[in-house]
Specification:
Helix 7 runs parallel beside helix 10. This protein has 23 helices and no strands. It is mainly alpha-helical and 404 residues long. It folds into four domains: 65 residues, lambda repressor-like DNA-binding domains (434 Repressor (Amino-terminal Domain), Orthogonal Bundle); 122 residues, no CATH class; 94 residues; 76 residues, no CATH class.
Length: 404
């Protein structure tokens, strides 16, 4: 089982760090018996915040515990994973000041169109399509950003930021947080050169998610704080609501960080601020970030799960008719159904059928989004262990996620 493998890695790394179990547990803010149960595979790792905290205590990457990136289990996963090396090469081969000047490049408007199409594919969790030729696209946009005239440079920097956002989502979803962090930094640098606070806010929000996944919560908070300051006076009633959307997404990211640290009051404060902005902007989707009331509701569920209050919030959400209709991207719909599965799993067996149903829905909507998520593997393993009889739905999910 996945939790047993993670627990074994946890114990191995702790011992190699020369830490006693009691000391490691105290640093993580949990009891020694609980740490022992984690190492021995008697407790699961169903909260991202827990995995990030443990990695931080042991001074290792979360992927060192989870074993990411996972080997491809199907052709779609293999094609998506194959896009990562060219993306990495492009980001390390070019900078915003130095590029290879003898490379042939396509017109910047054409490249901007490709970046937008890649972003649309990423929002629908089609990461193989989104990342296909993304390395070449990144390289050519760098060339324009360095060698073009003023208008060309600005167009290239804007498209480069969007292409980097695609790279962030692809790499993060497939388990390569180091590459996602590199893409996030480049996106923020490009937006800074444009002096576009809204674009920088969206890039910073994505960067903070990656930093949080890496356990770098202080870095994530600094990133969010700086970006929020730049859009602090955003007017959600203006025709151009992008700055307010960026501010809202940054508040959601702040709420998530607080929830992972069990700071419910701070999480609620930022969630309320995001909700106030969303009520005024309505449903928007600048750069496919899908900010609006529906997404704020979805994030509220994710926060509740991290804070251990998932079942109650899940009931409130699902009691509403067409509760997922406002989410326009497949990635966001899958995330909502996945969090519903996580929430119902917290009901200690009373809502396992609902948990299985929502996990199956999430995988149908965005399989790559779910099959490469270690938390999804943990949730499925827990549901399988508690099952009183064999069920086709569980067996099918286990085969698709390669669990058990």
């Amino acid at each position: 089982m996945d939790h047993e493998q993670i627990g074994a890695r946890l114990g191995t790394i702790r011992r190699r760090r020369g830490m006693s179990m009691a000391y490691a547990a105290s640093q993580a803010g949990i009891s020694k018996p609980y740490w022992s149960m984690l190492e021995n595979g008697q407790r699961r790792f169903e909260k991202r915040g827990l995995l990030e905290t443990l990695a931080g205590v042991l001074h290792c990457a979360v992927s060192d515990l989870t074993g990411e990136p996972y080997l491809p289990g199907d052709r779609e996963s293999a094609e998506a994973l194959a896009t990562l090396p060219p993306i990495s090469a492009a980001l390390h081969d070019s900078t915003l000041d130095d590029v290879s000047r003898d490379l042939p490049v396509r017109p910047v408007d054409h490249l901007a169109g490709l970046a937008a199409r890649a972003n649309a594919a990423s929002a629908d969790s089609r990461y193989g399509l989104a990342g296909r030729a993304l390395g070449d696209l990144l390289t050519e946009l760098h060339v324009h950003a360095v060698t073009g005239n003023t208008d060309t440079r600005r167009a290239a920097l804007r498209a480069l930021t969007e292409a980097c956002i695609v790279a962030i989502g692809t790499a993060r979803t497939l388990g390569n947080n180091d590459l996602a962090a590199a893409a996030a930094q480049r996106a923020q640098d490009a937006a800074a050169r444009l002096e576009d606070a809204a674009l920088g806010g969206f890039a910073a929000m994505s960067a903070s998610i990656v930093l949080g996944r890496m356990g770098a919560r202080n870095g994530a908070r600094r990133t969010i704080s700086a970006a929020l300051n730049a859009v602090s006076d955003a007017d959600p009633d203006k025709a151009d609501s992008a700055p307010a959307e960026a501010a809202g997404m940054l508040h959601l990211a702040s709420a998530q960080l607080a929830a992972k640290s069990n700071d419910a009051d701070t999480a609620r404060t930022h969630l309320d601020l995001a909700a106030e902005l969303a009520d005024r902007t309505g449903e928007r989707s600048t750069l496919h970030y899908d900010f609006g009331p529906a997404n704020v509701q979805a994030w509220s569920l994710s926060l509740a799960v991290e804070l251990g209050a998932g079942p109650e919030r899940a009931e409130q959400i699902t009691s509403r008719e067409r509760y997922d209709s406002g989410l326009t991207s497949r990635e966001r719909r899958a995330a909502l159904h996945f969090d519903l599965a996580r929430a119902y799993t917290q009901a200690e067996g009373a809502r396992d059928n609902d948990a299985v149903r929502h996990l199956d829905l999430a995988d149908q909507v965005a399989p790559l989004r779910i099959r490469h998520d270690p938390i999804a593997h943990e949730v499925l393993a827990e549901l399988d262990m508690r099952a009183r009889r064999r069920a086709w739905e569980l067996d099918s999910l286990k085969a698709r996620l390669r669990v058990g």
